[in-house]
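Study this chain:
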Amino acid sequence: MKTLARFDQILERLEKKAIVFIFSLLVLMILFNVLTRNIFQISFQAIFEFSPAFVLWLALLGSSLALKSNRHIKIEVWLRFLSHRFRYFARVITSVFGMVITGLLFYASLEFVANEISIFQWKGMFTLVFPWFFLAAFFRFFLKAFSLENKPT
């Protein structure tokens, strides 16, 4: 389990660096487009086409980090009224459920990416964020389901 936790830390660092890089790139591209449009009356349509893909990458990488740090949206009001033992088992069950769902979505996203690449060639590579996110989410649900912390005594 220590190896998996270490891998999770490496994954977290990579995701944080990717978020900083993509956000910086997005800001610089848009700033460049605004300046060239206002100074030289030249606008680059490609920047407008790629910007939503970068925002999608930011959103899904951020969601993966939120899942890692347990800051994602969850409904746990009813867990407050359960004993520690039931709370633990409820979290294990929800984590296993999350693994099943993200595993299925990972498989579906692989097919989606293959279709996008066959249709849009290299531009379809921007959709690689979907399998990345679902695989990272599956891994993080796995860690939550089978971690040794908060086990009932």
The chain has a mean pLDDT of 89. The chain has one domain: 2-146. Residues 2-40 form the longest helix (39 residues).
